Amino acid sequence: MNLEHLLTDEDRQIREAVRDLTKKEIIPNTRKLETDYNFVEEVHQKLVDMGIQAAGYPAEYGGGDGSSTALGIICEELAKGDGGISLSAGINWGLTLKPAIVAENRVVMDRFIPPFCSGKLAYSCLSMTDEAGGADSENPLLDGAGIKTTAKLEGDEYVINGNKSWPTNGGIAEVYLTICTTDTKAGDDGVALIYVPRDTPGLSFGKPEKKMLFKTSINSSVHYDNVRVPKEYRLAGPGMDANFYHFISAGTGWHSATMALGIAERAFEIVLEYTGTRMGGFKPVRQHSMAAGIIADMAIGIEMMRASIYNLGYMLDHLDVYGPPWTPEFISKATAARVYAADTAVEIINKGAELLGSMAISEDFPYEKCLRDVKITQLWLGGQQISRYRVARGYYDLKNWA
Ligand SMILES: Cc1cc2nc3c(=O)[nH]c(=O)nc-3n(C[C@H](O)[C@H](O)[C@H](O)COP(=O)(O)OP(=O)(O)OC[C@H]3O[C@@H](n4cnc5c(N)ncnc54)[C@H](O)[C@@H]3O)c2cc1C
Predict the structure, then answer these.
(1) CA R_g for the chain
(2) Rounded to the nearest whole angstrom, what is the distance from the C-alpha of residue 249 to the centroid of ligand 1?
(3) Residues 296-337: pLDDT tens digits?
(4) Those residues with Cβ within 8 angstroms of residue 35's Cβ, 6 or more apart along the chain or in another chain
(5) Pick from 238, 291, 303, 359: most CB atoms within 10 A?
(6) Same domain, 295 and 361
(7) Does ligand 1 have an atom closer than 6 angstroms to the CB of 127?
(8) Using an 8 Å Cβ cutoff, are 178 and 127 in contact?
């Protein structure tokens, strides 16, 4: 699928620079990166030095006014080397503060954007998954009733109580966009999205989770014990916050899809190269028709993923044409790209492993990392089941009958 016409010259330059960094600094150092977080921070700092951290922020704050398409290319290229670096970086560059930029919440923008455009590494966090049932807090059919973290307005402040599990950059982020409820019975009006600075009294963090994949990103629980923040740190107010929560599901779903694509592309490269020289039945493995069929299926999956992901990036960059990014139709299309990318990437990477024999799972060969990294793209954001509810809602008023 040729999508070059969607890219600007600047997008292409960014892609080349990040591709080069991934090839030289990330791919050869997988093991070191997965065991030494200082080394991960060095890579992040290089991205900051390349101007990439600031790229997604408005020019008036020293940012680059970068497009969603450019952000997608960066995340795709980084995921070829390491999913965790791609995840953490994508969240820092735009996903957390983008809603405030779209909502034009100046108090939040003035308070929280500058560190990301300062030339120093800064982390942000989307604090969504409630400890007691993460899928419930993401489930659009529950109309906010599944959110467990509470926010109560007292005078000029919101008081937040609750516990979140697994947020990426938990404990190291400067700012936490926290999904709360002011009233679980109020439907969309009860959903509250509130920015919380790290140094707020009552905010604390668990130890980083140990995981088999994305070892280069930090996931820690976030605890809110009577955390007080100014009421202006609420994103956009009753009703609109629920819309922005849907928008976040579209943005994070798209980010997830770019990572699935990058990991699948890396797996494809490895399969193509290895089967070109590995002999079986007196010829290179890829010259057997059964192998060619698997290689073709990998290529077809990647081509279709790329088309749907960059189509979605284009939609996110042209909201004047495609409408607000929280309508059921928009969310459905965005989530379809995410679900398809995750399922396709998992399927083709598993299938490609068959052409590598035991090397597929050797720790001295790069494929095992693709097998590991790709799985999370099906599990997070409420998982594929909750995501499919979002897809179906674009076509009819799917309800929760509980
Ligand atoms: C590497 C990594 C990064 C992450 N990053 C973040 C982050 O940045 N921010 C954040 O907030 N969280 C993050 N998470 C958490 C992740 O998004 C959640 O774990 C995920 O959304 C699922 O929540 P849960 O584990 O509580 O699943 P549960 O609520 O226990 O649900 C488990 C499964 O039950 C099924 N299920 C539940 N309810 C229903 C239903 N109504 N209908 C059908 N099936 C259902 C689904 O299959 C679901 O996947 C991250 C997790 C990982 C591993």
Answers:
(1) 21
(2) 13
(3) 999 999 999 999 999 999 999 999 999 899 999 999 999 999
(4) 215
(5) 291
(6) yes
(7) yes
(8) yes
